């Protein structure tokens, strides 16, 4: 398997809901492991929280996420953003529509000075998404 670069997002108890939402948006296969799966009774109140989750899609996207371990502070904010880019206008607009629904749009999805259609939003879980639709080459 080749090396890959993908985002890994931390959550404070809603990793399962977020990953299930992203699966609805992008499709693919979602694998979830809880703290209870690995720690048994020692996981205590965290037994149902996600220790590691991974979404892999037919488009080649990989998104990993987990709930912070018990007792670890959660610091949401602009410490992560996820970029989705390509030439398939319909596909990327579909992602934009789903991700921005219930979220906050900071840059509307529209043609930018560099020629691409670009938008930036925070989804309903507070994750910043950058969507860039480039003109087909050739």
From TrEMBL:
<dbReference type="InterPro" id="IPR028973">
    <property type="entry name" value="PhnB-like"/>
</dbReference>
<dbReference type="InterPro" id="IPR004360">
    <property type="entry name" value="Glyas_Fos-R_dOase_dom"/>
</dbReference>
<dbReference type="InterPro" id="IPR029068">
    <property type="entry name" value="Glyas_Bleomycin-R_OHBP_Dase"/>
</dbReference>
<protein>
    <recommendedName>
        <fullName>Glyoxalase/fosfomycin resistance/dioxygenase domain-containing protein</fullName>
    </recommendedName>
</protein>
<feature type="domain" description="Glyoxalase/fosfomycin resistance/dioxygenase">
    <location>
        <begin position="5"/>
        <end position="129"/>
    </location>
</feature>
<dbReference type="Pfam" id="PF00903">
    <property type="entry name" value="Glyoxalase"/>
</dbReference>
């Amino acid at each position: 398997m080749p090396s890959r670069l993908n985002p890994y997002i931390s959550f404070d108890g809603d990793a399962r809901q977020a990953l299930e939402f992203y699966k609805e948006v992008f499709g693919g296969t979602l694998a979830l492991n809880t703290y209870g799966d690995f720690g048994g009774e020692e996981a205590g109140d965290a037994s149902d929280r996600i220790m590691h989750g991974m979404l892999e899609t037919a488009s080649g996207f990989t998104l990993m996420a987990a709930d912070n371990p018990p007792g670890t502070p959660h610091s949401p904010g602009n410490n992560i953003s996820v970029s989705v880019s390509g030439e398939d206008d319909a596909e990327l607009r579909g992602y934009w529509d789903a991700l921005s629904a219930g979220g906050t749009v900071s840059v509307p999805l529209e043609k930018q000075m560099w020629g691409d259609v670009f938008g930036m939003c925070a989804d309903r879980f507070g994750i910043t998404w950058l969507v860039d639709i480039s003109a087909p080459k050739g």
